[in-house]
Amino acid sequence: xxxxxxxxxxxxxxxxxxxxxxxxxxxxxxxxxxxxxxxxxxxxxxxxxxxxxxxxxxxxxxxxxxxxxxxxxxxxxxxxxxxxxxxxxxxxxxxxxxxxxxxxxxxxxxxxxxxxxxxxxxxxxxxxxxxxxxxxxxxxxxxxxxxxxxxxxxxxxxxxxxxxxxxxxxxxxxxxxxxxxxxxxxxxxxxxxxxxxxxxxxxxxxxxx
Length: 209
What we know:
Elements: E1 6-12, H1 18-26, E2 34-38, H2 67-78, E3 83-86, E4 99-102, E5 107-111, H3 119-122, E6 127-132, H4 135-149, H5 154-173, E7 182-185, H6 191-208
Parallel strand pairs: 1-5, 1-6, 2-5, 6-7
Antiparallel strand pairs: 3-4
Helix pairs in contact: 4-5
């Protein structure tokens, strides 16, 4: 393995299709070649999270993330160390948190809403990808995901989207698109972009051998 792994950062608005892109990307590589670490597992504890005027936890602001621990673990991976982290389940009582293990690999993917937001973390990333989609597509995907994975009902999803997700996207996420090396539209499909990224990374792996 290279002394310094190649870091890829992937971000975009909620419902932009980051998860689908990541699944397709990871399927092209072995576990020894690529490691995925998600910002989602670095949310602060419930009592530390901010609530809006109606008492609803706001996960969609930068202050919800523990950047100190996130940055520390990324630096550990960069140094060739294996790390462990409890899975964050968004207070979903139907899910039992797992203890996740992240092993150093030649390629490390860092994904999440705010991975370009903090200078220290952004500066670790070699290639920055921003995935975007139109608003009506993103809310549809958000409704489907939050109901299935987080147990939120439709009213809850729409409330969070209107008062948390969209304001945060406009204020915090959309501006960091300016840091991206590649912007990938995902309104219909992203297969061509995926193929380009896969080809590039396979060449990186070949060059590092």
